[in-house]
Amino acid sequence: MPESETVPMVCDQQTATVGPAKMWQGQDISGLTGEHLIYKYENGWVYELYVKNATTIDYRFHSGPVGGRWVKNQLVNVVQLSGKDRYKVSWMEPTGTAVSLVVNLETRQQHAVIFFPQWVHQDGSQIATFQNDHLDQMMRLRNAGPTYPIFVVDEFSEMILVERRRVKDENVVNVSPQEFAPTLATIWAANRLTHKFGQKWGPRDTSDLVGKRLNFTYANGWHHELYVRSASSITQASELRAQRRTKQRTSSV
User: Fold this and answer.
1) Separation of alpha carbons 64 and 61, rounded Å
2) How far is CA 22 from CA 18, 68, 219, in A?
3) Deepest of 28, 137, 172, 240, by most Cβ within 10 A of its Cβ?
4) Rounded distance, CA 91 to CA 99, Å?
């Protein structure tokens, strides 16, 4: 195993917006640590994730624009969500790609939002390698850009495989996606998807959220205000304050 595999995947000072996991009091993520997941997105991409411990994941991408990419020891933030066996895993990659993944082990489904910088979206093959051996190259490419416009992937996925492994097992993700392909084919044959995504999740009704004005406080003390204007647009706090000031000036005239 290459020595670089023992180095945690963190971002340098320019992009370190997400650090190692900070556990909220009362959080229990033991139900997720040690889980090995292989899943297929609605768009056809097949990804693999191993939650090595409370702060670290290993992963492989088997298809899609960055198929062939694999990473060990990526630092993540993991939190427990309300409901049974629900978690969120978030991380920032040295490439500048940000990921937020909601995992529902009970229903074997996930939802991901992936924020690809423009240079990755233009040519994903540039990062389709074992990242740990090419960190300097990843950062040079990231810094060269272009970063914007960010390409956003918003997708549901269904788990093809869910298996419990021991924590910190270096043998779960230890070969490239290409070398793992025969094993993946066997897993796929034994766990073939039997339904369409829409049939499983049903209508994605967001009407209960649309029209809501939300005020909330983060654990770090930050306050945020949000107005859900429609199923595809929001108004944030700064805009809301500007609207209120405009109304106050108008009413005072």
Assistant:
1) 8
2) 10, 30, 11
3) 172
4) 5
Q: Which pLDDT tens digit goes with each residue over 166-208?
A: 999 999 999 999 999 999 999 888 876 554 555 555 556 777 8
User: 204: phi > 0 → left, psi -120 to 50 → alpha, else beta; which?
Assistant: beta
CB atoms < 10 A from the CB of 73, how many?
A: 21
pLDDT tens readout for residues 213-222: 888 777 777 7
Residues 6+ apart with CB under 8 A from 17: 11, 92, 98
Q: Are strands 35-41 and 233-236 parallel, antiparallel or unpaired?
A: unpaired
Nearest to 145 by CA among 129, 115, 122: 122
CB 2, CB 36: distance < 8 Å: no
Q: Show the tokens assigned to 5.
A: 């595999």
pTM (2 d.p.): 0.81
Least Cα distance to 67 among 180, 163, 189, 228 occurs for 180
Instruction: Tell me which residues are annotated as active site.
Output: 47, 93
Helices and strands (H and E) in the chain: how many: 5, 12
